[in-house]
Design brief:
Layout: H1 2-15, H2 17-27, E1 32-36, E2 39-46, E3 49-54, E4 65-69, H3 71-78, H4 84-89, E5 94-97, H5 99-116, H6 122-132
Parallel strand pairs: 1-4
Antiparallel strand pairs: 1-2, 2-3, 4-5
Amino acid sequence: MARLLAESFAALAAELPEAHARVAARLAGLPVAIRVDGERFVVEENGGAARVRAAGAEEEPAAAVRVATSRRAILDVIDARRSLAEAVLADEVEVAGALSRLVAAREALVAYVHGAVRCPSFPALLERFRRSAT
């Protein structure tokens, strides 16, 4: 998951640099610890770029925002079987952090999605993600 997300950031930077810059700007000072099916990583801004790096369990509590979910829950949201809010309320996506940080993380996610839908490489990345979820 982390590697695929890192590839998506690289594709966004290469194909739509302004969209990548918007994502990175919204991540500035906002490390997001993510756990997907047990895999742990951190998404953050570094040097003006959105980056993904592996993370240990000890980093999760210190992150500005923490997210835990599954590949299946992500696909349910992508495929509109469930809204993100419904997934959170059903405990399929767990989020934690101060409200202002959660709002900032949501803005980074929205900027990412806005870039993703216009990025030529994303359909192939999404297909690879789908295969990893089965």
